[in-house]
Amino acid sequence: MIYHLLLPLAETYKFLNVLRYITLRGLIAAVLALAFSLMFGPALIRRLRSGQFAQPVSQYAPESHAAKTGTPTMGGLLIVFSLTMASLLMADLSNLYVLTTLGVTLGFGVVGFTDDYQKVTQGRNAGISAREKLLWQFVIATLGMVVLWTRPEFDTHLSVPFLKEVRPDLGWLYIPFGALVVVGASNAVNLTDGLDGLAIGPVMTTSATLAILAYCAGHSRIADYLFITHVPGAGELSILCAATAMAGLGFLWFNAHPAQMFMGDVGSLALGAVLGVVAVISKNELVLVVAGGVFVIEALSVIIQIGSIKLRGKRVFLMAPIHHHFEKAGWPETQVVVRCWIISLLCALMSLATLKLR
Q: Are 339 and 323 in contact (CB under 8 A)?
């Protein structure tokens, strides 16, 4: 909004031409998102507590989590609000990629909010069914992919890291593929959200990484130099990613151990959707697997555990997702969280290395 209101005045006030720079608007969006989070966080915590929006501790969590009973959930509303407002204020709202990403993000946020609300009102750790949740996720993600696919300029080629000559064209199959990436990223973040500050750390590092990748993809000269797919207009997504990272930092102020509020599905599903859609648009679908390595490990641990129990009748991990395994093995919660942050940072650096190793 600020971008659209002030840019027309640039002919009269030359200094306003700086708004044409995505990097500056990304920086301002990041500061705004952080400010919104810190400003409205205490009020949201009070509102959640007064409304008794406390999610029951899962029966599948370690016994030590019983002490978390009574902590309000749905704190992800703070992140979604902050990143959305900052993006609306500073991004180019005529950009289809920005509107699509925000639309899918808010759609997933609604699904997560519905799930959280049912959990707290029913007083048990079960909201909408997993099947229904997945159905709505795929519906929203597919609609987003259809919007992108119908645009003539949208590239349906799949970029493969380290192999610049390998770019298979998926054609219309890109719609279900893209939807799978978005839904997979969303649920992977959701599975990771099990300890104070655990999910938001990797979300921040992955968002910051995608901000760089999206900017490079949207800049024709940089894209040509790095031998990556040039996606005109994708640079605007770096503003949204910067806002996401800093909204997450503001949330971490209240979510650090011991957490004053939990993210809830409204936050984890929406944040995963942001990462998935930006990765799809900027042609970094496979790089997301590296950048979001912590999310991938968490999701795989659940798949492996369930598969092993069904096929062999035995557990591979003491408890899944894997962060609970380390808790059961005696690691303090903060140690698990910080080490996952370190791994996430290393994954981010490795994903950025793919820009030159081609």
A: no
